[in-house]
Amino acid sequence: MMLTDPTNPPPLLTLKHISRCYASGEGEIRALDDISLNVWPGEFVAIIGQSGSGKSTLMHLIGCLDRASSGCYQVCGQDITALSNDQLAALRRETFGFVFQRYHLLNNATALENVTIPALYAGMAKSQREQRAQTLLSGLGLADRSGHKPMQLSGGQQQRVAIARALMNDPPVILADEPTGALDSRSGEEVMALLKTLHQEGRTILLITHDEKIAAHAERVIALQDGNMVSDSGEKPTGNGFLKTQQRDLSAVGLVAELVEASKTAVRSLHANLFRTALTLLGIVIGVAAVVAMLAVGQGSQESVLQAIQSMGTHVLSIRPGAPGLRGSSDVATLTRADAEAIAELDNVAWSLPERSARLTVRYGNIDYATAVQGVAPSMPLVRNWPVVLGDFFDDRDMRRHAPVAVLGETVKKILFPFGEDPLGRHILIANTPFEVIGVLAEKGADAMGTDRDDTLFVPLSTGLVRLFGQNHLSGIMVKVHDTHRIDATERAIHAVLLERHKTEDFRIRNMAAIMATATETQTTLTTLLGIVAAISLLVGGIGVMNIMLVSVTERTREIGVRIAVGARRRDILLQFNTEAAVVCLLGGVVGLVLGFAAGLLVSWSGIPVAFSLRPAVLAFSCAFATGILFGFLPARKAARMDPVAALASE
Question: Using CA atoms, how far apart are residues 561 and 644, in angstroms rounded to an integer?
């Protein structure tokens, strides 16, 4: 602070031929008409006039909340005409302190929080601004009311909180617009006593009133009528005023503080309208939960299908009887063991596995069970990547002597031997023919269609054809290749051999690698579609957020005007409401993640394959945050561009 020269103080405020006009139909209304005056540091000036005289318009112009239609207005010798909105905000923040008739306190904030708002936009650290706010409240007799909200304070106490807020940034000029208009006589006297005290401390006081008794407290009285200045007592100060020589620099501390304050304001706003908040969050929650759950289901289904195909090997060709394009069955007699032997001689063929299967009844003791019985060659565990975990698989010697031996799948073993009895060496009946159990295969689990792959048992193909199936043709041939890069050429060679042997195309060849590629593409497309559906849900939620934020901006118009009056820049208002939208979406994102994982677990318990991964969760949460930023921008932009005068006048 710097004391002015008491003998010749320069004007603090200079108005030259100021006019303010408003369009009205085809004409205009002149709220102010050719006003010229000077205000010196340390003056106590009362501007008096009846309603409609233009006194509030003059205060708005002096406080840089409005711009003149014509004329020149200077603050500390600086012409404000060419100043940007942010520069005007700096003037309001550092030079003027506003005291309003209706207090204009934020209802959801405590007295202490209301007082600290100007310092927030001035970049003051949290500890410093809270300490100063507490000191100001204590000096005004409100030390024990700092934690109370406006609705818990009397009118006089609320006005004192507003005065403390006006003093927060230590401004040289106090603009008081009808400060006693909403108070009883006793509270009004207390407020006027406070203004006098501030004047004695060297501050310049501009008091707007319609009451001549209130105006009598001032040293200088300016009367307005119909936008014209009709009188000016012309008394000058004694030279005890002060000015600021420097303005505070807004730093990163100010930005962080604004973000924290915006987040707190968002939480207060959400808490004040819990039901509306729940409906707003619902769209984001559903969108995020849908992304997580649906992509988890899609990913799980894809992995299940691919796992089922991989369990048979990606370097495997499957040959089935029946003409292409015609649904065949294992009963079509087109494939023989000789075909399998001929295929085994081809280049790049590692194994050629003939197969014959049927569903037969198996018995052990008093337990009967119908299962899939498959006659295969000894190479089956290698071709299908299906190891034996107990005992052994049959060999070529068993094939040559038509041995009555069997290897069980895990499901068949559990059903026939439910009490954990060792099945090796036991004899079971397959279609009333005794077979000795020599091994148990590793558990495979269900395939993508939910079929239990362990519900089967294997016997030597030679034995099965003679003793069980009663026919010599095959259900199919599984071919395993050495080099998967040459699998297409091998497929063409097999096709040529079988066509030459059968003289007609009564067989079908399926390339498992090609099937896997197709399945992968199909599942990826399905997962993408699920993701798009979920993203649409998130988009709808974002539109809901934007709608609620627009409602919030409308409801809090006066709050926006107050924030602008105490020095908030457009960027500050934009940050405030964008942060609030982001907080809404982040809260919805967190709840959505929890519900999405819970829904996925619930689906998995029903038997549907589910695979959770970090990427969809991060994507969904990031999209929720981006939704808040994107859909909060337009409401925030609307708030930032509000006319402060109109905002303050809003009900």
Answer: 5
Cβ-contact 61, 71 below 8 angstroms = no
d(CA 477, CA 319): 5
Contact, 439 vs 392, CB < 8 A?
Answer: yes
The half-sphere exposure of 619 on its side-chain side, counting CA atoms within 13 A, is 17
Question: How far is 454 from 449, CA to CA, in rounded Å?
Answer: 14
Find out whether 243 and 1 touch, Cβ atoms under 8 Å.
yes
CB-neighbour burial class of residue 240 (10 A; exposed 0-12, middle 13-18, buried 19+): middle
pLDDT digits (tens, 9 = 90+) for 121-130: 888 888 898 9
- Residue among 101, 136, 109, 63 nearest 564 (CA): 63
**Is the Cβ–Cβ distance between 562 and 168 less than 8 Å?**
no
DSSP 376-420: E-TTHHHHTT--EEEE----HHHHHTT--EEEE-HHHHHHHSTT-
Where in the chain are the domains?
Answer: 2-247, 261-305+518-648, 323-505
Burial of 4 (0-12, 13-18, 19+ CB in 10 A): buried
Closest by Cα among 172, 223, 185 to 46: 223
Strand 204-209 with 44-48, pairing: parallel
pTM of the model: 0.63
pLDDT in tens, 40-95: 998 999 999 988 888 889 999 999 988 899 999 999 888 888 888 888 888 888 89
Fold of 2-247: Rossmann fold (3.40.50)
Distance from C-alpha of 56 to C-alpha of 101, rounded to nearest angstrom: 11
Length of the chain: 651
